[in-house]
Amino acid sequence: MLGRMREHAKALSITLWVVIFALIGTTFFVWGFRSTSGGLGPDTIATVEGEKVPYTEYQQAYQRQYQQYQQAMGDKFDEKILERLNLKTQIIESLVARHLLLYEARRLGLVIGPDELTAEITGLPAFSDKTGFSRQRYLRALESARLSPERFEDGLRQDLMIRKLEQWVKGAVNVLPDEVWESFRFNRASVKVEYVLLSDIQAQQATIQRLAALVKERKPWEEIVKSSGLKPLSTELFTWTQEVKRVPDQDTFKEAALALEKGEVSPIIQATKAAYLIRVIDRKDPDPAQYEREKNEYHRGLLRRKREQVFSDWVRQVRARAKVKIEQANL
To answer: What does pTM read for this prediction?
Structure first.
């Protein structure tokens, strides 16, 4: 998996980024936003591992996102856009994720001590003047947001708990030197291939099974192609970042092709839109001298991407096994 990790990995889901990586920057606004419900309406939007998620949290988050879209789009703003974005579900999932991560942090025994909390508050630029942290500025800022220090600090403490949990998960992830080269080679190589395109997976299942058996028996490429009854297609040299013409499933196709050596035949690749059988005609690997020049920087980037991917997968696993009940009637 690591060798095939993209040099420019896809961004994590909106929900995950909102919950995990916008931690301290949004605390002031999340906890400072006042509900307009006046205490009326439902009191719970979800239950996470037996803990209730107050409806006011959902209401505040929704109002905040609503205003942000409204301000960003101006006259073009239309509430139907929020419906198309499925904003309500996004917000619910972000709140559920937040409560789940706090639950996991407590389960693992993670805590935020007074010194950690103090260091975080005094390090926030919003509460500093030319001489450094200003308690008077801190209290004025909270007062203007109609927010008590206790409530703000409770929210900040939770954010720090989530950050510590993230660091705990990521801290166990490392890469080996061979993995760095494997990933560098995959991302910087170029290959030229010929391939059989099976554009209707369901209708061509018999052909797919027959070709898979021939590949497993290591039959010559020419015999495999003849058995397919199809004319093989070919490409020019391409890299991971280049589009391959006449290929419906770009990422899947390129990932399979770039993992092969010259002359090697792939197993049947069943993607979303089609199935493929690929043989590499030519392969050009990156210059080892270039690798030596970029190795350290590439190692850092790969480690960062791997840790983010592992953490993202871990959060999804936590969500999948968690006991969560969402009060759909309250949305």
So the answer is: 0.79
- Which pLDDT band, with edges at 50, 70 and 90, does 31 fall under? very low
Those residues with Cβ within 8 angstroms of residue 296's Cβ, 6 or more apart along the chain or in another chain: none
Q: What whole-number distance in Å separates Cα of residue 48 and Cα of residue 249?
A: 38
> How many Cβ atoms are within 10 Å of 71's Cβ, its own excluded?
9
CA 134 vs CA 23, 121, 142, 155: distances in Å: 22, 10, 13, 20
Q: What is the pLDDT of residues 159-179, one digit of tens each?
A: 999 999 999 999 999 999 899
**Using N-to-C axis directions, what is the helix angle for 149-170 and 114-122, rounded to 10°?**
100
